[in-house]
Amino acid sequence: MQDEPIDKEIILNELMELHKLDYNYADGRILGSMCTEAHPFAKEVYCKFLDTNLGDPGLFKGTKHIENDVIKFIGNLLSLEKPYGNIVTGGTEANLMAIRAARNHARKYKGIVDGEIIIPDSAHFSFKKAADMLNLKIVEAELGDDFRINVESVKNAISENTVAIVAIAGTTELGLIDPIEEISKIAHENNIYFHVDAAFGGFSIPFLKEAGYELPVFDFSLEGVCSITVDPHKMGLAPIPAGGIIFRKKEYLQVMAIDSPYLTVKTQSTIVGTRLGASSAATYAIMKYFGKKGYSKIAQNLMENTYFLKEGLENIGYDVVCEPELNILAFNHPNIEAHDFAKKLDELGWKVSVAKCPIAIRIVLMNHIKKSHLKELLEDLEKIY
Ligand code: 0PR
Questions:
Q1: Residue 256 — φ and ψ, nearest 5°?
Q2: Per the CB 3.0–4.6 Å rule, which of 82, 173, 175, 335 could disulfide with 326?
Q3: 337 to each of 31, 34, 242, 288, 341, how far by Cα in Å?
Q4: Sorting pLDDT into bands at 50, 70 and 90, what band is 159?
Q5: Whose CA is nearest to atom 18 of ligand 1?
Q6: Looking at 287, 319, 335, which one is the last position of a domain?
Q7: What would the pLDDT profile of 3-50 be if each residue is shown by its tens digit?
Q8: How confident is the model at residue 125 (pLDDT cuts 50, 70, 90)?
Q9: Ligand 1: centre distance to CA 84 (Å)
């Protein structure tokens, strides 16, 4: 750091030069991201709440009220009348809170010391971080031929040390929904905590279902579901960072409570201490601004784009890995290995990612990818074929 102060304009120029190195959502070239450009109104609200700290909610009662309202809005969307939870930094922190709640609950009420969590092979790597931090053993449940969790495999994986079962509503790689109703039943019968990771699908499945799409049940209407991750900074179009963790019962927060004697609240259940109120305010704003109708329109439009890309790919001759259930599409070149294929696309400016299970190019059709971008992409793909 230099000794003397520097003029604002010089600093800003320097920063904007570096910012130019970043890819831009608006260019439509970022094809593997679950985040997208936040709505301008959400960003405006975000800036107004930048100094609020929900780590000490007694000082920011209005913003705490906003967070509670957002949890209520999201919980109600997920068929839960009286939800508990927090707006956190993202899906990773939300999943970590869920697994911590499950571990602490099992420790307190069942005396489990060496806990295990059952996660599908398709689970996001955040569960591996959670297991590492919480000292839990991971037991992986296999996927079926349809790339969804194999229910028998879950049953077989249960042991006296199981503290949680996890299923996904909108898998990271393929956007598929696990058979959550069946797993909820198994979890409930065995009195095991059941967490649903709907970080990606939570802000689209409810709206698509209402619009007539036939999608499976994944929410709190299933009695076995104890918590759900839903991220506003993915399909919710809120600014980063905004993850959501919703719990069915207050006791899941209580088993994580740590004394915070000198704060305005005497216990804290979140992992983070000082934490942004801006994320809650921006999520509140964008949820009110869009309403169910607005989100429904976006979700349907993204599904139409997904089908448009699928048809375009199949017309050229590419192999689509599976019928898309949400707005993620995975495909392969008949002769070029996926990583080499991704490199070729990168040279043409397309930023795609490669799924591992199965290995394939994966495209997340977010709001910044317009039909015109897809047409350009298909033209390039036709040349490579
Ligand atoms: N759960 C699921 C199902 C996810 O897909 C993700 C992230 C998480 C949890 C974790 O969420 P956070 O990243 O908010 O903590 N899925 C994407 C991934 O890691 C996120 C992403 C976003 C990746 C933008 C790339 C990118 O450019 O693959």
A1: -105, 0
A2: 175
A3: 18, 24, 35, 45, 6
A4: very high
A5: 172
A6: 287
A7: 999 999 999 999 999 999 999 999 999 999 999 999 999 999 999 999
A8: very high
A9: 23
Domain boundary among 287, 309, 344: 287
Range of the domain at 109: 41-287
Please state the domain count of the chain: 2
Is 203 domain-assigned? Answer: yes
On whether residue 273 sits in a domain, the answer given is yes
The mean pLDDT value for 192-209 works out to: 98
Report the pocket of ligand 1 as residue ranges, CB < 6 Å: 32-35, 90-92, 95, 124, 126, 168, 172, 197, 199-200, 231, 243
**Count, residues in the chain:** 385
pLDDT confidence bin for 344, thresholds 50/70/90? very high
Query: Residue 22: is it exposed, middle or buried by C-beta count within 10 angstroms (0-12/13-18/19+)?
Result: exposed
Annotate 112-160 with DSSP letters as a single string.
-SS-EEEEETT--THHHHHHHHHT-EEEEEPB-TTSSB-HHHHHHH--T
Residue 48 phi/psi, 5-degree rounding, is -70, -20
Output the CA 91–ligand 1 centroid distance in Å: 7
